From TrEMBL, chains A, B:
Its cofactor is thiamine diphosphate. GO terms for biological process: carbohydrate metabolic process. GO terms for molecular function: aldehyde-lyase activity. It comes from Penicillium canariense. This is Phosphoketolase 1. Belongs to the XFP family. InterPro entries: THDP-binding, Transketo_C/PFOR_II, Xul5P/Fru6P_PKetolase, Xul5P/Fru6P_PKetolase_C, Xul5P/Fru6P_PKetolase_CS, Xul5P/Fru6P_PKetolase_N, Xul5P/Fru6P_PKetolase_ThDP_BS. Gene3D superfamilies: 3.40.50.920, 3.40.50.970. Residues 30-390 form the Xylulose 5-phosphate/Fructose 6-phosphate phosphoketolase N-terminal domain. Keywords: Lyase, Thiamine pyrophosphate. Residues 581-782 form the Xylulose 5-phosphate/Fructose 6-phosphate phosphoketolase C-terminal domain.
């Protein structure tokens, strides 16, 4: 590509091959240390290949045969060497400086690199005793990897020390920052793959330094691993000049130290001296900030590690490039089951690491290598932060009832539930100043939660202007974390929770879908954790969304308080709470709200008149505005058809609608029937897609009687009133629908009267232009007169 | 914040206030030009405020009264001035250099800034004649903005010249690059908000320069608008030093030119000379690359424009900061309806722009200002690229049937449908070398589509290494676009389609959810475009996913070909095609496949034996592997219960299951009944969530007879066989279920025989460990003997 030479880039200069080249010069190791560390590295690499290929003959004491291989080869070799290499070098510094270090593997599919470390350190055998530190244990350790009934090929929850699976790429740096906030002694060493570095979420997460306070937070030490290739392509960052790379990271606020090459001896020296320099710089920054108690934003150190992809593999096989090319990404030699020559190549490659020099006759790592790793909790594979639930302390929560909205006349009182709840949240912040944070993409103020700033302002470590004193609410010591990237907010929160703390993210419904898939990954993580015995439960991920509907939709202010209290106490869930931020009619006293929120759904007696009898119709709702509409329709039915028996059901937690077999919040069919009946029409008002309710209930008895009114379409600019008319959820439409349903089942004696009423209502609807359902509800004579 | 001064940053130096400071020095305008441009700018700003506030009295010829105001104030002021300012300065250069320029507004909620331009240029009145260039038209133009029945507050599809709404932030740069690929003369001027710049998708999209060939592509000219504040927070990039900002953009591969300040006279000079420098640099790069035909990657020019948020608004109102603070983000003075003093402030602010000097007695822009803008298609508000459908030419598609898989024995032949379809795709590329591209996050090779590289390699404008000659498939002239950021791929593709071309994105199912919300935004855009009369339809967004299920799931290779051909010809859809990439049993000849794909679903006669009779059961499937399983179960029923009448239905397009009322692909109930019956059991095998099928069919007659078998859970490592067993979709489970269903309806005479068979099958199932459904299917004696 001669034409590209015009840009003046000497591409040779950034080859991954040859003697080490590094920003920091000098030597930190003597020859004996290099020898031992390299042997430890060989042991790691041997284990990596063992995991990828072997189900038997773990130490190759017999000639390698097809029968020793797994029949289905799955897993990744490409980044294993670079990750192991980095881990081993950090081990030296943990021992030397007594550091507290967590390891996050961005390229989590390079799991063999991590798993090999936890096995060599003994942490693996401690939690999985059958994977013992001997030949037999090693065989099991190898076989289970990417094997049916075994473990996956990422840094999954089964991996000791891991809080980051690395499946959906892009979140390593934001997770890492989440772990170090309010953990002043922690350094989170984070490998960022150069593939991952191309994702959007990762690209913006480098800016997290503008939110890290060196006095009270720990530090993230990123190692950008320029492995050079993705699955089938080169990576961008491995194909730009040193100058551009340096500029990019300076611009992000980091100080990159390069370590590049393939020669083992010199690479060990370069990495040792560079990593040590980074650790010293981090400690110097922290020392300066803490001794003066003056937080500042330094240019934090990071490492750019350029090594060949699949480092230490054969460079070529049959004239095709392997090491240093994309073919090294997954299983490096794929046809060993069918190609005896390639099986030979694999065998001699593995034997080249000389396992007989590294493991004793028993198959145990020899003592002079064993002692290179730290012990106990100092091991990165056993750091308690990597199993954050063990560090988790429940929040210090005062009684939320002191913030109760009082003197509620159901259906009459109007108050703002969200702004009131913010007072409770303010106290949650002030009572938990080192283990609770509020996150969001700049919606906290507009969501009416600004009250929390009285307890903790917004964290800001970038520059300050004079204007900030006039309504800025910024502080290096803040407790609210706001960056416009939802991905970064969510990543920080996940990291914060997974490392044993508590938090809440708040956003606006239309924007929260940006992180749908990210939240799904977190759900899968915590679900899988339940199957891993040694994992302690972490705090729930609480998502507070302003909108008028979702899975947990408190109908009023006291229910919102009770729900929030519950969410903040819960573990191992993802709670999505949705509430509108405006003032609304209130329905429940604190006592009733607690009962209602605890049940998750229930009959509202005060709005029903079917006591001790079968209703003619069940009116149901979920969400605040839809509850208003359904109540208004109920009042209308009451006004025009006073003898009709109406049951009013409100749903807070939609998961209650599912069978208890399919969701822990679910309820059995008899319970469902007692509330909804199995033979009466149910008119369910709901401000999202009707199919969602059908999806949750399609197996319920009488579900064919269930009729959902909800979102059909939305115009450019809709008032709630316009939206109700458009979607047929205004009170007249709902009441007419209710009459239709009752008639269709023939549940009332004479239908002549109903037909007449329906006709009357249709006329009213045509002239209906006040749109003031709230006023109509408030003016109705609640509670509903019983058996009128 | 004295403590922050320690980092050596003189924050004063990056204030947005004062005389202009700029990287490029000099003057490009004489005093008369400055005067006119500033008047044009005043006219723009006046219109912006008019849109936000007024429903009457558009030129303030009467004293401003409450009755002239909209009753509900919605819209954004914050970025309007900076966007208008940039637009006006580009107008000068369009005229001077005869440029072809499209404008993309990243902060699309600053729509007044854009709308004011299209109104001043006359483009608005051309497409909406009632919004004429006079007082009456201006009144309508103002009133409709953010008003019920009017237009939204973003750069929505109704906005002439817009292809980018800017609601969900982060995609302006990737959209912009999409528009300039293969449009060598186009410059897309792109405003990037400093809020948007914090998002992940935007942060990585700066790297798009590594994929732009200056010989055959146009150029993107970004203007990073350091407006300073988001909704309630400062922005990161406005609070770091010049040094960091310069480094960051140098690192991304750009050359930033700063233009900063608030003084109008000097800012006009600075912007004029800077924008002109950028345009000249772009032309110089293009000239060099094109005259030598040697593509290279320069450091492309960009502008960093720092102006106060809400520029030209009052600095303070009642002691609270407005201009240059976050309060200027939306409606700048919110209480004008209730606060007469503030109404006065608004009036004098608006009158300060002196509309009487800018618009004549008729309310029309005066000629000396009108002539500042370009005319006809040269106007950014009328650039045909902004209504890409008018430029769209159908693809040159040869007959896909020449790639038919031939000699298909249904249920016997095994071939790879995806690898075969790649040959068709190769020809699509080679026959459409300037208006079709294939996009993806590095899955093209593993998706078995590498055949396309023969027609067009992967675009690569970063550095090349020697290894690339050995399997790299990279070229500056490539046609395949691969970056690991799904957001960037999708953004490029959207921009490419919306500017009148064709494309296809391919990915792997688990990763595609990262862009779920982004695709939803595109759906909303094209849906809304249907309501805008002057918008021409654009090509469909085609998404090809490897997995074993989705909405369009061709069951075999010939159906896949036919479906792809259809998608590539279609307009205004989002087509999601899902297929497995492995070799599979084939079922349909090309002729049958075309018919089947056209119908979207159908009875497979050759696998059914209910001809001219009612079936005892309907076996249905969607997707390749699930079709195998359902056919294997059908064969099993045939083997054990030869007199049973089985109808086999295969679904290609799931939207066929919906009523035609709710989806254009839907079908009416009688048609549904003719295929599925309304009284026979239907056993639907499906490799995704069962509720999805129920959601699509819950209103169908006989839907309570529909029983879906599908995804329940997945372990770490599953073969298709293990997955089938786990989820009960193996042939024995399905056949046993079928018998149960038939019995439950009492549709067969004697159930003793069925009970016995069921017992037999359960025994077989317990011993079932071959897992080779494909072999079982192939060994069955198809076609199904009729009425045996």
């Amino acid at each position: 590509m001669a034409s590209l030479a015009a840009q003046g880039e000497n591409t040779k200069s950034i080859s991954a091959y040859g003697e080490a080249r590094s920003t920091v010069q000098g030597r930190a190791l003597d020859a004996e240390e290099v020898r031992k560390m390299n042997n430890y590295f060989r042991a790691s690499l041997y284990l990596c290949l063992g995991m990828l290929y072997l189900r038997d003959n773990p130490l190759l004491r017999e000639p390698l045969a097809r029968a020793h291989l797994k029949q289905r080869l799955l897993g990744h070799w490409g980044s294993d060497a670079g990750q192991s290499f980095t881990w081993i070098h950090m081990n030296r510094l943990i021992k030397k400086y007594d550091l507290d270090v967590l390891f996050i593997s961005g390229p989590g599919h390079g799991a063999p690199g991590i798993l090999s470390q936890s096995y060599l350190e003994g942490a693996y055998s401690e939690v999985y005793p059958d994977k013992s530190e001997d030949t037999e244990g090693m065989q099991k350790f190898f076989k289970q990897f990417s094997f049916p009934g075994g473990i996956g090929s990422h840094a999954t929850p089964e991996t000791p020390g891991s809080i980051h699976e690395g499946g959906e790429l892009g979140y390593s740096i934001s997770h890492a920052f989440g772990t170090v906030f309010d953990h002043p002694n922690l350094i989170t060493l984070t490998i960022v793959g150069d593939g991952e570095a191309e994702t959007g979420p990762l690209a913006t997460s480098w800016h997290s330094t503008k939110f890290l306070n060196p006095v009270t937070d720990g530090a993230v030490l990123p190692v950008l691993h320029l492995n050079g290739y993705k699955i089938n392509n080169p990576t961008i960052l491995a194909r730009v000049s040193h100058e551009e790379l340096t500029s990019l990271f300076n611009g992000y606020g980091w100080k990159p130290y390069f370590v590049e090459g393939s020669d083992l001896q010199s690479m060990h020296q370069a990495m040792a001296v560079t990593l040590e320099e980074c650790v010293k710089e981090i400690r110097a920054v922290q020392q300066q900030a803490r001794s003066s108690n003056k937080p500042f934003r330094p240019r934090w150190p990071m490492i750019v590690l350029r090594t060949p992809k699949g480092w230490t593999a054969p460079r070529e096989i049959d004239g095709k490039l392997l090491e240093g090319f994309w073919r090294a990404h997954q299983i490096p030699i794929t046809d060993v089951l069918t190609n005896p020559d390639h099986l030979k190549i694999l065998e001699s490659w593995m034997k080249g690491y000389k396992p007989e020099e590294l493991f004793d006759a028993n198959g145990t790592l020899i003592p002079e290598l064993k002692e290179l790793a730290p012990t106990g909790d100092a091991r990165m594979s056993a750091n308690p932060v990597g199993n954050g639930g063990v560090l988790r302390k429940p929040l210090n929560l005062n009684d939320f009832q002191k913030y109760a909205l009082r003197d509620i006349v159901p259906g009459k009182t109007v108050k703002g539930g969200m702004a009131n709840m913010a007072k409770f949240l303010r106290e949650v912040v002030s009572e938990n100043m080192t283990n609770f944070r509020l996150f969001g993409p700049d919606e906290t103020e507009s969501n009416k939660l600004a009250e929390v700033y009285k307890a903790g302002k917004k964290v800001w470590m970038a520059d300050y202007f004079e204007e900030d004193n006039n309504g800025g609410n910024l502080s290096p010591q803040g407790r609210v974390m706001e960056i416009l990237s939802e991905h970064t907010c969510e990543g920080w929160l996940e990291g914060y929770i997974l490392s044993g703390r508590h938090g809440l993210i708040n956003s606006y419904e239309p924007f929260v879908h940006v992180i749908d898939s990210m939240v799904n990954q977190h759900c899968k993580w915590i679900e899988k954790c339940l199957e891993v015995e040694w994992r302690a439960k972490v705090s729930s991920l609480n998502i507070l969304i302003t909108a008028t509907f979702a899975f947990i939709s408190p109908p009023d202010g006291n229910t919102l308080l009770s729900v929030m209290d519950h969410c903040l106490r819960s573990v191992n869930y993802v709670n999505v709470v949705v509430a509108d931020k405006q003032e609304h009619i209130q329905f429940l006293s604190m006592e009733d709200a607690i009962e209602h929120a605890t049940k998750g759904l229930g009959i509202w007696d005060w709005a029903s008149n079917d006591q001790n009898e079968e209703p003619d119709i069940v009116m149901a709702s979920c969400g605040d505005v839809s509850t208003h509409e359904a109540l208004a329709a109920t009042a209308l039915l009451r006004e025009y058809l006073p003898t009709l028996k109406v049951r009013f059901v409100n749903v807070v937690d939609l998961f209650r609608l599912i069978s208890e077999i399919h969701h822990p919040h679910g309820m059995p069919d008899p319970h469902w029937k007692a509330i909804f009946t199995d033979n009466k029409p149910i008119l369910f008002n709901f401000h999202s897609y009707p199919w969602l309710i059908h999806r949750l209930t399609y197996k319920r008895p009488g579900q064919h009687n269930l009729h959902v009114r909800g979102y059909k379409e939305k115009g450019n600019i809709d008032t709630p009133f316009e939206l109700a008319l458009r979607n047929g959820t205004d009170r007249y439409s709902l009441a007419i629908d209710a009459i239709d349903l009752i008639e269709s089942l023939g549940n009332t004696g004479s239908s002549v009267r109903e037909k007449f009423i329906k006709f009357q209502l249709q006329g009213k609807k045509a002239a209906y232009n006040d749109g003031v359902d709230p006023e109509y509800i408030r003016n109705w004579n609640w509670p509903y007169p019983k058996n009128a």
